[in-house]
Amino acid sequence: MSKSSKYVSNLIKHFKNESDSKKAIAMKKYMRDQFPFLGLQSPDRKELMKSFIEKNGRDYTDDDLLTIYNQPEREFKYVAIELAAWQQTCKKIKLPESRIELYEKFAQTEPFWDTIDIISSKLIGGHFKEYPDQIKEYTDKWIESDSFWDRRICLLFQLTFKKDQINIDLLFNFINKLLVNDNFNKEFFIRKAIGWSLRQLSKTHHNKVFEFIELNRNNLSILSIREGSKYLKKTLI
């Protein structure tokens, strides 16, 4: 067994040894019975991750991360995302442009809000801060995807951007494209993401969001307007 394979197998064993069948049933039910779980809630999972890293270090590859992510139990997806996020924030590591391919594979493997939201805002958003020239290539593809989860990424990847990093016109363009597509405009996770992205943007560009909502009030869903208007002055809503 290679060093890389041993790292992954040890990690999987480390987490499976602490599984809780009762909690696993409840967690699966919470996620609409779509995915199996080990029954490890966030605090327990983070403690297990800490103890594993202390013993085994962080000597893992992109292939290792993908292998971990592809395990059937949902917690392994969270673990892979956390390991990838650590590499992204480590000053000693310079991730290549091609790293976006791993994040895209993550996002397109059994997507649901629990993985897509953190992949979008932390992994993909963080990557695009380093490689902004890739934004158009990938978002042009995702916004036209048949998967509304890909389209949701386009709405959320700028959530952690600073005021001077946000491309407002790009976000508004994405929203307008989604509004003219009845199938996607009716999708709850798209309507919610539109509102979320507008709400976050309103923290730094209050008037821009107000004007956009007023201009598109007849096309935006009630949910999108309610979410997007949360931080706007009540007198303007």
UniProtKB/TrEMBL annotation:
<dbReference type="InterPro" id="IPR016024">
    <property type="entry name" value="ARM-type_fold"/>
</dbReference>
<protein>
    <recommendedName>
        <fullName>DNA alkylation repair protein</fullName>
    </recommendedName>
</protein>
<dbReference type="Pfam" id="PF08713">
    <property type="entry name" value="DNA_alkylation"/>
</dbReference>
<dbReference type="InterPro" id="IPR014825">
    <property type="entry name" value="DNA_alkylation"/>
</dbReference>
